[in-house]
Design a protein that fits this description.
The chain is α/β, with parallel strands linked by helices. It has helices at residues 14-29, 38-51, 61-65, 82-95, 136-141, 162-172, 175-190, 196-208, 216-223; strands at 34-37, 55-56, 73-78, 100-104, 108-113, 116-123, 144-150, 153-159. The chain has 2 domains: 1-160, 2-Layer Sandwich (Beta Polymerase, domain 2), CATH 3.30.460; 162-225, no CATH class. The protein has 9 helices and 8 strands. The strands form 2 sheets. It has a 5-stranded mixed sheet. A 3-stranded mixed sheet has the order 2-7-8. Helix 2 crosses helix 6 (162-172). The longest helix is centred in the N-terminal third of the chain and has 16 residues, at 14-29. The protein is globular. The model has no long low-confidence stretch (mean pLDDT 90).
Length: 225
């Protein structure tokens, strides 16, 4: 029977945290240039902003939970050959005892434990990343490392730099993306972060993609104009 993706996890969930850690540890161990994207990248950025780099999620869970939207998957962008990743993930499945890992067709995995399951999708080349193909390599090269803890367990993951994170959401501009953008900007402002240079970079990215008009949402949200 095929597993159904269920949107019920945030980075505060122990299973989801552990699944992401196992994946990123394996990629880092094998020196695979990588980044986590999509809703998980947003969660990681929010967690880092609120907990601080190397911060413990257990100490901020009450304040962080309100900003996190549940998901049922993990999306990865990799710079690697697909056959190499199949080999790496097959080896990972054979050697990982704490979680079940099933390699699937079409660049996908299932990570399971008990009744929990998360779907993992990965791309290995720029043409797979719709909407941001032209920036694929630069996004990986400039990705930020996020370091978070749960107790004594440390997670190290790479996510798009903030200008790319904002741009990737502003290309789509679904309601959930608008909420994520608004939350990010409000938390950044509460931390007194200077975002002007990041905004200008986001504008340039959107202009290149023919989506510059979408930048108006940042003006409205960040500056009220």
């Amino acid at each position: 029977m095929a597993h159904q993706k269920v949107a019920r996890y945030t980075i505060l969930n122990r299973f989801y945290f552990d699944a992401l850690k196992v994946l990123t540890d394996e990629l880092n161990f094998n020196y695979v240039p990588n980044m986590v994207v999509g809703g998980t990248a947003y969660q990681l950025k929010m967690a880092e902003l609120i907990a601080g780099k190397g911060g413990n999620l257990n100490s901020v869970s009450a304040g962080l939970e309100a900003f996190l939207r549940q998901t049922g998957d993990i999306d990865l962008q990799l710079r690697a050959e697909e056959m190499d990743m199949i080999r790496i993930f097959n080896g990972m499945a054979a050697s990982t005892s704490s979680l079940g890992i099933q390699n699937l067709p079409n660049r996908a995995l299932h990570v399971t434990k008990g009744g929990n399951i998360v779907q993992v999708s990965y791309n290995t080349k720029p043409s797979d990343f719709r909407g941001m193909t032209e920036f694929y390599d630069h996004m990986i090269d400039t990705a930020d490392e996020v370091v978070l803890k749960r107790g004594n367990t440390e997670l190290r993951a790479h996510i798009p730099h903030l200008d790319y994170l904002l741009a990737s959401k502003m290309i789509r501009m679904k309601e959930k993306d608008k909420v994520d953008i608004s939350n990010l900007l409000n938390v950044c402002k509460s931390k007194n972060l200077d975002l002007d240079s990041k905004f200008e970079s986001t504008r340039r990215i959107l202009k290149f993609l023919g989506k510059e008009d979408n930048f108006d949402y940042i003006n409205q949200t960040a500056y009220g104009c």
